[in-house]
Hints:
Layout: H1 8-23, E1 47-49, E2 53-57, H2 66-74, H3 77-83, H4 91-106, E3 107-108, E4 115-116, E5 121-127, H5 135-144, E6 148-153, E7 160-165, E8 170-176, H6 180-194, H7 198-211, H8 225-237, E9 260-261, E10 264-265, H9 272-275, H10 286-300, E11 306-309, E12 314-317, H11 318-321, E13 335-336, H12 351-374, H13 378-406, H14 409-427, H15 442-474
Parallel strand pairs: 5-8, 11-13
Antiparallel strand pairs: 1-2, 2-5, 3-4, 6-7, 7-8, 9-10, 11-12
Helix pairs in contact: 4-7, 7-8, 10-12, 13-14
Keywords: Magnesium, Membrane, Metal-binding, Transferase, Transmembrane, Transmembrane helix
Protein name: polynucleotide adenylyltransferase
Cofactor: Mn(2+); Mg(2+)
Amino acid sequence: xxxxxxxxxxxxxxxxxxxxxxxxxxxxxxxxxxxxxxxxxxxxxxxxxxxxxxxxxxxxxxxxxxxxxxxxxxxxxxxxxxxxxxxxxxxxxxxxxxxxxxxxxxxxxxxxxxxxxxxxxxxxxxxxxxxxxxxxxxxxxxxxxxxxxxxxxxxxxxxxxxxxxxxxxxxxxxxxxxxxxxxxxxxxxxxxxxxxxxxxxxxxxxxxxxxxxxxxxxxxxxxxxxxxxxxxxxxxxxxxxxxxxxxxxxxxxxxxxxxxxxxxxxxxxxxxxxxxxxxxxxxxxxxxxxxxxxxxxxxxxxxxxxxxxxxxxxxxxxxxxxxxxxxxxxxxxxxxxxxxxxxxxxxxxxxxxxxxxxxxxxxxxxxxxxxxxxxxxxxxxxxxxxxxxxxxxxxxxxxxxxxxxxxxxxxxxxxxxxxxxxxxxxxxxxxxxxxxxxxxxxxxxxxxxxxxxxxxxxxxxxxxxxxxxxxxxxx
Length: 475
């Protein structure tokens, strides 16, 4: 019986190939390439215009086609083996499989391809009318038109109005003239399209952050969803070998919407023909990456001296950034905003919050470690045991040969039954542990192991005794 393993990377490649066939029949969006499917939560590119106002929103309300794609793919026998693997799979691959199951159920296509069935709508209103620049005025206008105002946040870096549309049953965040958010969305969409592991990894970490109440920068003192996304992107940029590049530093023609912010261009490379497959040389599984992400920010990242930089594609020092002095030197967590590099996305989390974040990362690492220890996986179990089988047999044969050559007949005869047992096992091809039989024969293997342990312990004391007698006799 051959065991089946789940390789998330190759699974996603299979899905991506199918999606590319579907995309050839779809319309291309404003960015020159289409989303894997046609529905969205977190973003859209619908634009309403009049003489002075443009409304660009980051969500659409089309029906989700992703599940239909998975259903059609399930008709393939090869993919069925991946979606419904045997239980004999390594822990990290099992974790990858469970992540993909959650990802399959929860995801919705979006402008940045990171929508879920719980995402709200982000809307940017571009207008030259000064009346809408006051968030409270905008809230009053919306309320008069039947929308429910949940909250206004006028003092945020980007002031927003949080509303609820009772007709469409949608939650929305509205801001005015924050056009840079559109470039943020396009940048994230480009990164997501480069490697098939990016999207599910970001989504599962966003889901984890929401469940642990770590994604409320405005009032919760933690980190925004955008900040979590930047952390994941930088994490993938700093793997070895890297899975994602740094788009801003790749030579490219400046985009039409390029603006200079503090002397830096906002334009970045979004030519997917040059970018897709960048991380192909990295073979880490989705489950392994998730565990490594938590481990990095629990134990490896130096919060006191390091800065996360998506724009540079690496970790910077506070000294390099000039954040070792001034207000930023007092921040407990430093995450550079990719477009406005003077802005610290981690400024919403104070020292107490960052200590809490580290505890959550440590909790996740411990949880995964406990799960891996408790995860009875016959393939892993047999592989770990089998690496000691031949060395043990070889050492046993070597000891027997030494006794035979030196004429120590008593210890040679003592070792003869064990040597005969090992030879019989090898000739019958029963010396290796079989993952398909291990649980049925486990009690037999335990008895044999304890007998061998007792035999080797007695031999040790016997050899020690004979050595002492020989030393005394030689004196």
